[in-house]
Amino acid sequence: MKIAIEAQRIFRPNKHGMDFVALETVRYLQKIDHENEYFILTAPGEDRCIEASENFHILTLNASSYPIWEQILLPRALAKIKPDLLHCTSNTAPIRCPVPLVLTLHDIIFLEKRSHSSSSWYQNLGWYYRRLVVPRILPQCRKIITVSHFEAQRIGEALQIGSDRLTAIYNGYGEHFRPVDNPYSVTQKYLPERDYIFFLGNTDPKKNTERTLQAYGLYVAQTSHPLPLLIADLPEAVADTILKTHGLESIRPLLRFPGYIPNRDLPALYSGARLFLYPSLRESFGIPMLEAMACGTPLITSNTSAMPEVAGEGALLVDPFSEQSIAQALIRLTEDASLHEQQRVYGLQRVKAFSWQHTAEQTLAVYQSLLAHK
Questions:
Q1: How does residue 117 score in pLDDT terms, banded at 50, 70 and 90?
Q2: What interhelical angle do 287-294 and 17-32 show, nearest 10?
Q3: Which three-class secondary structure state does DSSP give residue 294?
Q4: Does residue 130 contact residue 123 with C-beta atoms inside 8 Å?
Q5: Domain limits for position 168
Q6: Which long-range contacts (CB under 8 A, 24 or more apart) does 45-50 make?
Q7: Please, which of 116, 317, 324, 335 could form a disulfide with 303 given CB 3.0 to 4.6 Å?
Q8: Strand locations in 26-95, DSSP E?
Q9: Based on the domain organization, do 122 and 202 belong to the same domain?
Q10: Do 329 and 188 reside in the same domain of the chain?
Q11: How many whole angstroms separate alpha carbon 146 and alpha carbon 108?
């Protein structure tokens, strides 16, 4: 087989969820499949995180914007390669695709009603682009991969897609995510304290940053020695606006804003944290939960969407729409040593059910099933 994989953003330095899914899937396909020929189509970037090999070719396409890259340059490249299939890894694909198409549709949040827009123009533009493109490409998709059974059910019901075309393949987590013996050697670059709460907040409304800060305020008010809150990937100006809106300026001295944290430093940041806070409103999977559990860090996450499916029955789940629910879980997990140890052990065991190798093996099986019926 000649297999083309769209991995447009894997070389950019500041990678996020879908970028890592594409990168790790490609990386493990390269490890396990030495029979088929692969063409990995990317955009230019500084982080050359994979290299070509005998049956893996890397083609770099340079465009001024993502739509031009995907809708014009990608089809042109496919016309030259003439692959047996194209796998688009990040929700969208060329509207006119000249070859059989496999699509990873991580979620359909872009079709759901938003309570408010993101403060990021880039996120808003992506939201509108997906709403425009996805309905037009779905009829072309021979196979659709999504990342959880929850999301598969949502997609099937909302878009009337049958199980013959739709399959759930879980994400994995990097092998470098494991307990770090001396995390402070790394964490001191980001905050002076050795003990803290870790929260991956950003401007995406689904990350629930505003309500999380309110919950942290309740935790601070009810705790004699509150731990500082490390908030990755959130501009301080955005946080300051939230604090002023809700009269929470008093907690400002306890907040730490390191900006974007490189993936190589995350294991130490997880390992050094007393707990990892992930009370999203809506997730199709939630890779950071696996990363935290793999580092032996107790997790607080939401009882909505795919998070209970991924975190498992033994996880500490909260109502993400309730500041009080989040705050009470924070108090319990920071003050109850027995519960803390129970959750640490549980997470280390739970995470063994996931790996990028499993993801790659199941993805390869989708390719094979498609071409078996060609």
A1: low
A2: 70
A3: helix
A4: no
A5: 2-172+355-372
A6: 45/9, 45/10, 45/11, 45/12, 45/13, 46/11, 46/12, 46/13, 47/10, 47/11, 47/12, 47/13, 47/15, 48/11, 49/10, 49/11, 49/23, 50/10, 50/23, 50/26
A7: 317
A8: 37-42, 56-60, 85-88
A9: no
A10: yes
A11: 10
In whole angstroms, give the CA distance from residue 271 to residue 184. 9
225/136 same-domain check: no
Domain count, the chain: 2
Same domain, 296 and 315: yes
Give the CATH number, domain containing residue 86. 3.40.50.2000
Q: Enumerate helices (H) and strands (E) in the chain, giving the number of each.
A: 14, 13
Give 17's pLDDT tier (boundaries 50, 70, 90).
Answer: confident
**Which pLDDT tens digit goes with each residue over 59-104?**
999 998 999 999 999 999 999 999 999 999 999 999 999 899 999 9
Can you read off the two tokens belonging to residue 159? 């878009």
pLDDT in tens, 141-188: 999 999 999 999 999 999 999 999 999 999 999 999 999 999 999 999
pLDDT tens for each residue of 305-345: 999 999 999 999 999 999 999 999 999 999 999 999 999 99
| 4 touches 41 (CB < 8 A) | yes
DSSP 8-class letter at 69: I
What is residue 158's DSSP assignment? H
User: pLDDT by residue (tens digit) across 337-374?
Assistant: 999 999 999 999 999 999 999 999 999 999 999 887 76
How far apart are alpha carbons 300 and 316 in whole angstroms? 5
One-letter amino acid of 184: Y
Does residue 160 form part of some domain? yes
C-alpha dist (Å) from residue 208 to 142, 160, 247, 309 = 35, 29, 18, 19
Listing DSSP states for 196-230 in one string gives -EEEE--S-GGG-HHHHHHHHHHHHHT-SSPPPEE
Q: Looking at the chain, how many residues does it have? A: 374
Cα 156 to Cα 88, 92, 163, 310, distances in angstroms: 19, 17, 8, 19
- At which residue do the structure tokens 């890259």 appear? 69
* Encoded tokens for 259: 């900006």
Helix (H) or strand (E) holding 334: helix 323-335
Residue 179 lies in a domain: no
